[in-house]
Write a structure and sequence with these properties.
Layout: H1 8-16, E1 40-43, E2 49-52, H2 53-62, E3 70-73, E4 86-89, H3 91-100, H4 113-121, H5 126-133, H6 137-144
Length: 153
């Protein structure tokens, strides 16, 4: 996605839902949210498409976003769209950021399984995935091999 994917109307609508405060403050999205608290926005350029508000903010600020990368929050606030609080990274980068801030429990939950499966399919080493989630590599290989969490397919 590039900044040219947005019509002037899309850009105006985006900023109308963002209270711009200080440069270091969280700019909390005032539009629709998904079930995890992330802002959502529909754009009309080209074709109708629903996007995460923080991805839109990052694209407008940098000129582009790589669809293969996550747009991560340094502030850990899913509603925040302040581009100064956003960075592009891999799923592993995002998990490491979470772990380094002490926000990741060491016990796996159902919410952990989809990103773990994605990281496995993306070719991350099991030991790196395990370290990111605070578990032993055998827990990750059990997920990979369908011995655990297979009911979440």
């Amino acid at each position: 996605m590039t900044s040219s994917d947005f019509t002037p109307k899309d850009v105006a609508r985006f900023w109308s839902k963002v209270p711009t405060l200080g440069i270091n403050d969280c700019w909390e999205w005032q539009g629709p949210l998904d079930s995890r608290g992330y802002g959502r926005m529909c754009i009309t350029a080209g074709r109708f498409k629903a996007l995460y508000a923080h991805r839109v903010s990052y694209a407008l600020a940098t000129g582009h976003t790589d669809p293969q990368l996550s747009i991560c929050h340094t502030c850990d606030n899913p509603r925040c769209v302040n581009p100064n609080h956003l960075f592009a990274g891999t799923q592993l980068d995002n998990v490491w950021d979470c772990v380094s801030k002490g926000r990741r429990a060491t016990k796996l939950t159902a919410k952990d399984i989809p990103p773990i499966r994605k990281m496995i399919s993306d070719g991350y080493p099991l030991k790196d995935i395990a370290a990111a989630f605070g578990v032993e590599p055998r827990a990750i290989s059990s997920i990979r091999d369908g011995r655990t969490w297979s009911h979440l397919t």
